[in-house]
């Protein structure tokens, strides 16, 4: 058995392994110093723990750079490089190989976690929460750095060095989005460690005022924005790579990223109630503990091999370890919350049903039910296998759609009504007077959609609720503009946004979610799919109201694989769809569809088979209305989240200047 460190076998591997072991040592020391600083209120120990974070970040950064250098230099003396990279691969594929397999992805997670811990160490206030928040971050670092330095080390040396390397997973080099999606996902997952650390610190110290919630709101919002972008980026990768014309299949690994998003979205709404009314203290603690634990659950599902997914890594020794860490987080979080339960009670009365906090609480319950149902569907095949010993059980999209559609419509309904409601309690008459224009707008939009041929109840409901939400946001903005003008603070919309960026950032994010909902509804209900075989020189073929003609085929060969390309004219416009095969993938072909994006819908062409002589090609044509609205809506959501982080500008009141009356004779 080879040692983990051998300068003779692999100099780069030995350097990387030493950096991780040193990082692990500093992590252990930092954990001890943080606990001492918290227990004894020792500021010197806390300061030493803070500086230990810097050392951990520097050492994990060194290890990450070493692995990247080994990948770019084709240093196959490092086992990870030999097994997951190849000399002939393009540079961008070698870079993405860093997170394209198990050990490298955990190293990236550890590096990002160390980066978040570094930023936290530089921004923490000097209060009682400081050492315990650092200690909680160190516990997460201890796990991830420890896994990287031991059972999942990417720096194991090889005694027999291959000439070319085995190469990366073919599916992960078929589209450039693999350079973006995993990094965004890890930023979202790892970002939730900071609010979790603050929650732990508040529970340990008993300082359960609203301070920790206020401080962590920005951290949570940043993590949520990354997670939102990551989920949709993964959908775009699926859309552009797998050749099926879809973007979401309720795949177990997709679900594992969606569950933390649902819980974090609920937390971001309920935290406003705690800030404003001092309510839902216990609820928010539970939500953030479950949200962070669910990121570890997702990582466990992705790396344990217990679920079958195109996104999942092969099973390995880390699965049981991740399961143990997940159990530790849940037991520790639940235990601390139960210990402090008497201090987490709300002092004010429970939220009134017809109030802003009542709407937020109802939305939280829908998010929670949504997350639980997705979790049940994800784990059901695994539970069946554990009980009955068979792996043929599956949960299809029909199960998820049965609850996702009504829950989604319910969330859209509350999203429009919530901002209209006052805090504490709403007067019934005034509320219905404010709600009437929204309901009329929704009814009108639904009738117009019906007149244009929309018959799907889910789509009609989405269209109606989209208008309902947009009119509500418009009325709220118009009312704020009138109030601003009456207060002599100006009448411009940009001035209003500068004064209240948090509010209007949230409004913008809600607009983006409405756009996404419309894209999902129409592309799901009215997608058309047809297949045919085209021959070179034959008369054009009519398919889905489009005219298709095959101009020809060609074979593009590269050192790492080859592409069979079909050039097809669709209504006179050229499309080039490909089937890619890779050296390490054998005869497995990976589609690279040709997509014409449009505001009202996409035209999506996939090649399914070729004639070796180039005389014909079988193609699949998919028409998906409003798919692009999903991508544009996500951009709007992320911009809205960014706007909420902008500090507000203090309002200025314009005082009219008294003019002296002109002199008269």
UniProtKB/TrEMBL annotation:
One of its GO terms (cellular component) is plasma membrane. Keywords: Cell inner membrane, Cell membrane, Cytochrome c-type biogenesis, Lyase, Membrane, Transmembrane, Transmembrane helix. Residues 99-304 form the Cytochrome c assembly protein domain. One of its GO terms (molecular function) is heme binding. It is a multi-pass membrane protein. The keyword Transmembrane helix applies. It is found in: Cell inner membrane. InterPro entries: CcmF_C, Cyt_c_assembly, Cyt_c_biogenesis, Cyt_c_biogenesis_CcmF. One of its GO terms (biological process) is cytochrome complex assembly. The chain crosses the membrane at residues 20-39, 51-72, 92-120, 132-152, 183-206, 218-239, 255-271, 283-301, 321-339, 359-380, 400-422, 434-453, 459-481, 504-526, 629-646. Residues 323-645 form the Cytochrome c-type biogenesis protein CcmF C-terminal domain. It holds the Pfam family CcmF_C. Required for the biogenesis of c-type cytochromes. Possible subunit of a heme lyase. Belongs to the CcmF/CycK/Ccl1/NrfE/CcsA family. PANTHER family: CYTOCHROME C ASSEMBLY PROTEIN-RELATED, CYTOCHROME C-TYPE BIOGENESIS PROTEIN CCMF. This is Cytochrome c-type biogenesis protein CcmF. It comes from Deinococcus metallilatus.
